[in-house]
Amino acid sequence: MKEIFGNSLRRTGEKETPKDRAAHDFQFFCEYYLADYFTSPWSEAFHKWLIHKYEDIIFNHKDEQNKVCVSSPRGHAKSTLSSFAFVLWCALYGYKKFIVIISATAIVAKQFILNIRDAIEFNPLIKRDFGSLKNDSLWNSQELLLRTGAYIICKGANAQLRGLQFGGTRPDLALLDDMESQEEVDSPTQVDSLEHWLTADVIPMLSVDGDAIFIGTVLSYNSVLWRLLTEARFASWERKRFQAVIEFSPSNLWAEWESIMTDLSRGDNAYREAKNFYNEHKEEMLDGAKVLWPDQRKDQYLYLMEKRLESEESFASEYQNDPMTENLRVFKTEWLENNYYEETPDIKEVNIALDPAVSTSRTADYSVILVLGRGTDNYFYVLECDAQKRSGDKLIDDAKKIIATYYRYRPKIICETNQFQAFFSTTLQKDLIDSGIYLEWIDVMHMGKDKKKTRIESLAPHIRQGHIKFKKDQSLLLYQLRMYPRTHDDCPDALHMAISPMLESSIAKFSFGSFGGNTTHNENGSRMTIRQLGEQLKKWGGETYE
């Protein structure tokens, strides 16, 4: 019978007790014995995936070594489910004999031991069904020896683990929970040291069928967790990254909500008025949005948008597991914030860039209509950036409306025509001509050597030097610039499309006299040689070229 059913004989059918059922149903174990810890409905995408993964390890792969790496959003009960409930389940039923819980510090790891100890000693259902499991010889805040023979200890990161044994056996489960702190991931030396400790100490200490579970939140791209999740050399690990927001709402009403939330003139009423706005437009604002744990609280998506508004950088790291520290940014936050504008000077030239990624699927790129104006001060102003996931018909309708808005400037239209985008360009041109609208049209086809990365990053010096100005409410464009290249880059690419013809015309106008000549003029009208102009440019801090 033990060969068939394992160490825990269980009854099934009408006579199956809760203890019997929980032996092969980890979800039921949590819901029945630990109901006080799991009060919200499960996340189908996250919690149930984790539950099934743990059951699969115990029942289907118990004779082999399993290595699992999971990144989870903050506040999604990853530690409660893994370092508390899973460890307790394994210990009570004897699925694991020697368990090591490891966290960033020994103090944090001790808390898991204390929670497990309290559940064994004081949980009435566990005491009733499993009896007294306390072993007075080893029963403290750092180690527990159950009467089932299971031994649980806690350790801090970088602790001495070589040769770790108990009763002649090596650990058969290492649960590494929130191993890294912000201070550690900011130091490449400490990250390298922690990785070496993981590969040279933690994994080798395990028994031949011992399992390693590494779970946490990605604090930096320079972290051990990110390396485990992304680098090919860790392909032997089963890896999974979860994000609190699976799909952001495409509704433009969120920009209005944000404007209300951040309107200082509303005083203490701003939050209440923003909440009322949300409730009035809730259905439209939530259309297309998808979150990892929808039943964690009422209005979960709204809660997460409030978190993002508080700190977009913290939100990206702690909830989306996709951090971007300032020193890694191509487009620094300071550059962007220093170039916000409220009013423009008179606009003398307008380009409208169209990037027609025609699709409404979750993973699709955004279709972008970006309007860029050159002011009489010769700075560039992003007048509008309309980025949505939309159908081809809607894109054409939206493009017509925006072109009509800026038609008085006789704008140039710049449109990407790679592959199916050419059909969009042709259709829109025909519609405009049929309406009697004739504008200069520039089709852009990016060839194989024309790398998007190079195009977008060429914007950096212009943004750094303040040549390009933005509106503060152009949130998606600013977000994509800040998070580049770790998110969609359609808005920055459209910005490059819009500015390129203006820059080319500026270079052509910056001629030293007539072409072929070698003189220009001083401010007083006297003639100046190229050499004299070069000397003057050097005084101004510029560069000269032969």
UniProtKB/TrEMBL annotation:
InterPro entries: P-loop_NTPase, Phage_terminase_lsu-like_C, Terminase_6C. Residues 352-500 form the Terminase large subunit gp17-like C-terminal domain. It holds the Pfam family Terminase_6C. Keywords: Viral release from host cell. This is Phage uncharacterized protein domain protein. It comes from Mitsuokella multacida DSM 20544.
